[in-house]
Amino acid sequence: MPRRALAKHRPWLLASLIAGISYFFVSDDPIGGTWLMLWKGAGVAFLAAYAAFRARALDGLLITLVMVFGAAGDIALEISFLVGGSLFAIGHLLASALYLRNPREKATLSQVLAGATLLFLTPVIAGTMTYGLDNWIVATAYSAVVGAMAAAAWTSRFPRYRVGVGAVMFVVSDLLIFGREAQVVPEAVTSWLIWPLYYGAQFLIAVAVVQTLRKGAQRAVA
Fold first, then answer.
1. How many CB atoms lie within 10 A of CB 155?
2. What is the distance between the alpha carbons of residues 98 and 58, in angstroms, rounded to a whole number?
3. What are the beta bridge partners of residue 91?
4. Residue 44 — φ and ψ, nearest 5°?
5. In Å, how far from its chain's centre is CA 194?
6. What is the pLDDT of residues 93-129, one digit of tens each?
7. CB atoms within 10 A of CB 11
8. Rounded to whole angstroms, how far apart are CA atoms 115 and 155?
9. What are the angstrom distances between the C-alpha of 28 and each of 1, 37, 40, 195, 199?
10. In sequence order, what are the residues at sequence separation of 6 or more whose Cβ sits closer than 8 angstroms to the Cβ of residue 103?
């Protein structure tokens, strides 16, 4: 039964991969318009559908909403950087709540230090890169939310080398965006790295969180 259920919902992941990977190759289409915006949001939207069908209870709702706000943020960024960033910030706050609800039983000193580093260095780096731009304070505040999410993910019970690494990839992707806006990171670098890091992060996080929640639910039933 579990394998049959996984096979039933695996098409959501396949659809996400097709949308997310293909978008990378069409993202610079100058006449994309609405269809390109929807294409951009489709990869994470399919992850939201996957989470909605596979996960249960409050934690399942949280990871679903994280992906919903991520997909909405992807689309909104094409219209307004501020609106898109706000939607992502809400998603990060929901993700932080999810991770804090699921702490690691025994976090090692290195794990705690890594979490603290993500928490404090993320906004510091963002603020340093964007200082002098009109919205550098907003960028720094947003990065503080992203850093808090990554710190919570790294010290949660979810697989560190999937959810934790995914959260770090998210941080790097966002920092590259700010580096591009501040013109401190070359476009030749950001154009190749931002989307793969971002989409890869969302995919790793969604799949690993859902799988972990389902394993926990199956043990509880047993």
1. 24
2. 9
3. none
4. -80, -30
5. 12
6. 999 999 999 999 988 999 999 999 999 999 999 999 9
7. 12
8. 6
9. 43, 11, 11, 12, 16
10. 155, 156, 157
pLDDT of residue 29: 79
Q: In angstroms, what is the C-alpha Rg of the chain?
A: 17
- Find the angle CA(195)-CA(49)-CA(14) to the nearest 5 degrees: 60
**Look-up of token digits 């794990």:** 111
What residues form DSSP beta bridges with 103? 156
Calculated CA dihedral for residues 28, 32, 35, 38, nearest 10 degrees: 30
Whether 201 and 166 have beta carbons less than 8 Å apart is answered as yes
CA atoms within 13 A on the CB side of 188: 0
pLDDT per residue as tens digits for the range 174-202: 999 999 999 999 999 999 999 999 999 99
Token couple for 80 = 């307004």
Domain ranges for the chain: 2-221
Rounded Cα distance, 174 and 154, in Å:
17
The model's pTM: 0.92
d(Cα 82, Cα 209) in Å, to the nearest integer? 28
CB-CB contact of 48 with 64 (8 Å): yes
27 Cβ contact partners less than 8 Å away, ≥ 6 residues apart: 36, 40, 195
